[in-house]
Amino acid sequence: MINPEKEIGPLFSIIQLAGIFPDSKTFVDAIPKYAMEQIFANYMGLEDPVDLAQFVKDNFTMPKAYASNFKTDDKLSMKEHIEALWPVLTRKGSTDIGTLLEMPNDYIVPGGRFREAYYWDTYFAMIGLVSSEKKESIEGMLDNFNQLINKFGHIPNGNRSYYLSRSQPPFFSLMVELLANEKGNQVLEKYLPAMQKEYDFWMDGVEKT
Description:
Blueprint: H1 4-7, H2 10-17, H3 25-28, E1 31-32, H4 36-44, H5 52-59, E2 60-61, H6 78-89, E3 90-91, E4 107-108, H7 119-131, H8 135-152, H9 172-183, H10 186-203
Helix pairs in contact: 7-8, 7-9, 8-9, 8-10, 9-10
């Protein structure tokens, strides 16, 4: 897990403000080929004028662009349309690489430019997964979020290091309830410690208000 803004200092702003990429999210999702300290040293060793685009290409692997080419079939029912979208929006479990945070199980992404899972977006996806009878997918993503809570104390906005400073409305307990309705109260017991930990995170400091 890296935080490029902190680890390469002013170089981060230089690259982001240079307009190399049409989407500012591209660079922060890139994977460094070397230790960040080495990349910064590589930059400092360059002579003017610096070809920033080439420098980034030499030192970072660009994130994968997902072009699904998915087209809606007007003959499909809404349920059939949603069923067809699940494999398009599913990403394999990830390890800590670049700014991506580890989540061992497959997860659903919003699509488009978003290559990671987002907190409350996942809840709404889970509602659809219930209808699709994909209980295993729901439990896998709950286990992902359970791991994030145990590691960071909360579920960040998305599973990227640059999202660790913020979250979204706490829907974890509602996610647990969705699965408990399908599999029984043992689900509540399994995730109770994480629910308590997230509750404590959100309530920290409330007595001072």
